[in-house]
Design goal:
The chain is α+β, with helices and mostly antiparallel strands. It has 2 domains: 5-201 and 330-412, Aminopeptidase (3-Layer(aba) Sandwich), CATH 3.40.630.10; 203-328, Alpha-Beta Plaits (2-Layer Sandwich), CATH 3.30.70.360. It has helices at residues 5-11, 13-25, 36-49, 61-67, 132-147, 172-178, 227-246, 297-313, 337-351, 366-372, 396-412, and strands at residues 53-58, 78-84, 92-98, 118-119, 122-124, 155-161, 185-188, 196-201, 203-212, 250-251, 257-258, 261-270, 282-291, 319-328, 331-332, 356-360, 377-379, 393-395. The strands form 5 sheets. A 6-stranded mixed beta sheet has the order 1-2-6-3-7-17, with helices on both faces. Strands 12-13-9-14 form a 4-stranded antiparallel beta sheet, covered by helices on one side. Helix 1 runs antiparallel to helix 11, helix 5 packs across helix 11 and helix 7 (227-246) crosses helix 8. It starts with a helix and ends with a helix.
Length: 415
């Protein structure tokens, strides 16, 4: 009697660990975006090994140079696309994960952050939790279906994309605009974990505000306009805007009350030529405005710009300019209908308890599928601990559970 996919996954959990160690061992630190060619070649091979047609999609150099800073022009960008056409299937499900990781620092408990060391039921290393572990879980799920000759109920698309740790413009953003994909449903394999299914995330608007003053000698400050003092007054004026934001709310399906937030000065600086005996002529600070699922980035930016402009006019000799650094759309898929019901059933069968639906305060690549492609999208993966930090790690049992959940969904949900 042949094994079920779940039994196969249990028996071959070592394959998952070995794959994840391979993935972690290929350092894909971004910025600047190293070893993208190596890891995408490996991922194409692994997708083909588990039964998908797969290829690497290079980003045209001219496009990359328009997006990337000059010091990254020598680091090519690639995305990977795998596809499996299932006879009789009418709908298509898309799985997405990013393969880039953030830089490392500090002293790790198990030596090299790229070793994939296993200890106490955990696997350690940069990317184990965010989110090469998800890649390894999905590959084992697909391997299990092939080995047990169990056909999915839907056509399958898989993308492994670049640059989520920066802006995703050459990763998932490029994919949804240029790749030959036609999904009806999408799972971005992060955002939700354990008993939580993520059905949306906040958006963000990043602005840089420059305050323009006038330089003067430190002994005659009255002859200048101190940009730092004007910036300080403007920042204090933003308390009123924060109070306004605090009155806005969005209640998630699990009952969490979310509010938009604003963080000031994650980056701040003076202009060139600063000196202790000079009145500063320039001061800059950043604004990180988180946008609720019920807001839009355009309206959030418009409102914030209007407030800044009006506040500056109330401060004598305060001249400002505002530049947008970046934005990302919020997204939300109401957890209703067959797709979310099927995923909930998979979690309940594998984890033995009913799931809850959450909305992430951060953001990931879900919005490219939910907002841009306008398809039902959820976030779920094995997760982990100390993401972006020293001793990042993923729990081995959660990695195999995620593989079982993916395989269960593929074999029970028809769309």
């Amino acid at each position: 009697m042949s094994k079920s996919p779940a039994a196969y996954i249990d028996a071959h959990s070592g394959d998952l660990v070995a794959r994840l160690q391979q993935l972690v061992g290929i350092s894909t630190v971004n910025p600047p975006g190293i070893n993208y060619a190596s890891i995408t070649s490996y991922l194409v091979h692994e997708l083909q090994a588990v039964g998908l047609k797969a290829r690497r999609l290079p980003i045209p150099a001219a496009k990359a140079k328009k997006v990337l800073p000059r010091n990254q022009h020598d680091y090519p960008r690639y995305n990977v696309l795998g596809q499996l056409a299932v006879r009789g299937a009418k709908k298509t499900i898309h799985f997405n994960a990013h393969y880039d990781v953030v830089p490392v620092s500090g002293s790790w408990r198990h030596g090299s952050p790229f070793s994939g060391a296993v200890s106490g039921g955990w696997i350690y290393g940069r990317g184990t939790a965010d989110m090469k572990g998800s890649i390894a879980s999905l590959l084992l799920a697909l391997q299990a279906l092939k080995a047990t000759k169990t056909a999915p109920k839907l056509n399958v698309e898989v993308s492994f994309t670049a640059d989520e740790e920066t802006d995703s413009l050459l990763g998932a953003g490029w994919l949804v605009e240029n790749a030959p994909i036609k999904p009806d449903y999408a799972i971005v394999m992060e955002g939700g974990e354990g008993d939580q299914i993520c059905c949306g995330h906040n958006g963000v608007v990043w602005l840089e505000v420059t305050v323009h003053g006038r330089a003067a000698h430190g002994s005659t400050p009255e002859e200048g306009i101190n940009a730092l003092e004007k910036m300080s007054a403007l920042i204090l004026a933003l308390d009123e805007y924060k109070a306004k934001l605090a009155k806005q709310t969005f209640t998630t399906p699990d009952g969490t009350v979310m509010r938009p937030t604003m963080n000031l000065g994650g980056v701040f600086s003076s202009g060139e030529g600063g000196k202790i005996n000079t009145v500063p002529a320039l001061a800059r600070f950043s604004i990180d405005r988180r946008v609720l699922a019920v807001e839009t980035v355009d309206q959030a930016e418009t409102d914030l710009r209007a407030f800044l402009t009006a506040a500056a006019k109330k401060i004598p000799q305060c001249k400002i300019s505002i530049a947008k650094v970046s934005d990302n759309h919020p997204c939300y898929s109401a957890p209703e209908g067959a797709f979310f019901s099927a995923m909930a059933g998979c979690l309940k069968r594998v984890r033995r308890k009913p799931p809850v639906y959450s909305v992430s305060a951060g953001f990931n690549d879900m919005h490219f599928f939910s907002h841009h492609l306008k398809i039902p999208t959820l976030g779920y993966g094995p997760g982990g601990e100390d993401i972006h930090a020293i001793n990042e790690r993923a729990k081995l049992t959660e990695l195999t559970r995620a593989a079982k959940i993916y395989s269960d969904l593929l074999t029970t949900f028809e769309g």
